[in-house]
Amino acid sequence: MQGDEDQATADQGAVMESAEDTLRFSGPLGTAEAASLWPRAMEAARRGVRSIDARGVVSLSGTGAVLLAEVARHAGDAPIEPPGEHSAAETLKRMSDALAAAPAPPPPPRVGLVTRTGQLAIGTVKQCQTRVGFLGEVMLGWAGLLARPWRLRISELFRHLDEAGTRGFALCILLGTLIGVILAFQSAIPMRKFGAETFVPQLVGISLVRELGPLIAAIVLAGRTASAYAAELGTMKVNEEIDALSVMGIDPVAWLVLPRILAAGLVMPVLALVMDLTGLVGMGFVMQGLGIPPSMVMNSLQDWVSVGDLWGGLFKALIFGLTIGLIGCRSGLKTGGGPRAVGDAATSAVVGSLVAVVVLDGLFAIIFFRLGW
């Protein structure tokens, strides 16, 4: 220990003196004083202190007592001379006993790169197993429903059809019209350079029917319905209502999941069709403003947009809807405990649905390209 004195004074008057191998504290040692002295006290303790003298402390808070105890611990369990004032000495004793009874947990061991990679791989495999297991439960539920179709809750199915489909028509009409207008204007700008504005209806029509209609409808369904499924089922999970159904011998998958997945799958082609039609209407208004009559627009669409394009887009929408319903229900049933569980489940449902839709859309693009469709 250095022989010279090192003194640090807090704003409220607490004093810390370091002389030889003793660290002395004096004055009031409250929360503000302890915070001001903490860095210097820890540094002095690391340099080497054999004893701590707190006899000059006139008042002591819990934070100040923790400071004295931590300095002693960092100095190798150096002894502490308690304050002369009785209440301060009692505070120090109670805090020291509490810290000794509940010591701080040791720092976690350092994990190497190979170990972290292995843990990540094991966690990914477990997540995949959980998702495949849930998919298997849903498939078994569908098989049981085909054998006993009267188990399907028709009233619940119509409720979800209304919430996921009917109440989403207004949003789809608005988005579809705006998308058609935007695509028409943005396509007309480069086409005008080549005098090819007449090809805008073909471009917009194929883009909407094959790609943008199902994709934007899926985004709407993921934002509205997947989050609603996850929040509703997550609340039931937190309130132990799903466990109560299992205790009563009722399969939660058949009772709660299947109507929601079926409703999402049925409404998605309808929403995609609404997006397609309203987008074409919006594009028609723009073409009318550019001097292209509606009859010419209709003829172009009939020549270039086939029924196969429409069916392909609607089939994609059906798969998107089933996937969104499946992910939303799974996120709700896997909700944990705590106040943030339901919000985390809704967020997981939306993010997972969007990622799954984009991945499926890419797979469909590859398949359609290989099939020449």
UniProtKB/TrEMBL annotation:
Stretch list, region Disordered: 1-26
Annotated InterPro entries: ABC_MlaE_roteobac (IPR003453), Permease_MalE (IPR030802)
Q: Which domain of life is it from?
A: Bacteria
Which membrane topology describes this protein? Answer: Multi-pass membrane protein
Q: Name one GO cellular component term.
A: ATP-binding cassette (ABC) transporter complex
Question: Subcellular location, in the record's words?
Answer: Cell inner membrane
This protein's UniProt keywords: Cell inner membrane, Cell membrane, Membrane, Transmembrane, Transmembrane helix
Transmembrane regions listed in the UniProt entry: 168-185, 266-290, 310-333, 345-369
In its UniProt record, a GO molecular function of this protein is:
phospholipid transporter activity
Which coarse location class describes where this protein primarily resides?
A: membrane
Biological role? Could be part of an ABC transporter complex.
Family, according to the entry, reads as follows: Belongs to the MlaE permease family.
What is the protein name given in its UniProt record?
Answer: ABC transporter permease
Species in which this protein is naturally found: Rhodovarius crocodyli
